[in-house]
Amino acid sequence: MKLLTKPVLELDEISGALKCIQKKELPILITGCMDAEKCNVIETLSEAAGRRHRVIITYDEIRAREIQADMKLYDKKSLLYPAKDIMFFSADVHGNAIVSGRLEVLKRLIENEPSTIVLSLEAGLDRVLPLSYVLNKIIKLRRGYSFDITELG
């Protein structure tokens, strides 16, 4: 990937943005990028700054899916955190795609694996349980193990 990221890092605007990230002068704004180049800039900055996790928030679900597909070039395991579709969420039209996508992101966060998570603003505004609460409710099952189900409540 150095072949794709090294030339970008040599640009004055990108090296200036990297300095701001390192000094924690956030947020930063980079303008003038073509859509095809945005994922390269994100990868370059996160790699150079030594960041393991990337969260990309965009204006709608369609654009989030496009960015996630583009990020697969840099991170094969990039994930989409889907927004709840009010009309179809309870109708189960998409199967369990929304729930399974959200659980996959949650699993990746719990396991603290390096991640690229792409979501729409709408998905980011959904109310969810705090990660600390979820961590306290995890039960690991194994063969021969028993527990009282009244403790689950």
Overview of the structural elements:
The chain has 153 residues and is mainly α. It is 48% helix and 10% strand. The protein has eight helices and three strands, in the order H-H-H-E-H-E-H-H-E-H-H. It has a three-stranded parallel β-sheet, sandwiched between helices. Helix 1 (2-9) crosses helix 3 (35-49) and helix 2 crosses helix 3 (35-49). The protein is elongated. The protein starts with a helix and ends in a 17-residue tail after the last helix. The model has no long low-confidence stretch (mean pLDDT 86).
Notable traits:
48% helix, mainly alpha, single chain, elongated, three-stranded parallel beta sheet
Explain the layout of strands and helices.
Layout: H1 2-9, H2 12-22, H3 35-49, E1 53-58, H4 61-71, E2 79-81, H5 86-89, H6 97-110, E3 115-120, H7 121-124, H8 131-136
Parallel strand pairs: 1-3, 2-3
In short:
The protein has 153 residues and is mainly α. The protein is built from eight helices and three strands, in the order H-H-H-E-H-E-H-H-E-H-H. It has helices at residues 2-9, 12-22, 35-49, 61-71, 86-89, 97-110, 121-124, 131-136; strands spanning 53-58, 79-81, 115-120.
Structural class: mainly alpha
Low-confidence segments, given as residue ranges, are: none
Largest sheet: 3 strands, parallel
Task: Please state the overall shape, judged from the principal axes of the Cα atoms.
Answer: elongated
Portion in helices: 40-55%
Count, helices: 8
Largest sheet strand order: 1-3-2
Number of strands: 3
Average pLDDT works out at 86
Topology order in helix (H) and strand (E) letters: HHHEHEHHEHH
Percent of residues in beta strands: 5-15%
Please report the distance between the alpha carbons of the first and last residues.
Answer: 48 Å
CA radius of gyration: 19 Å
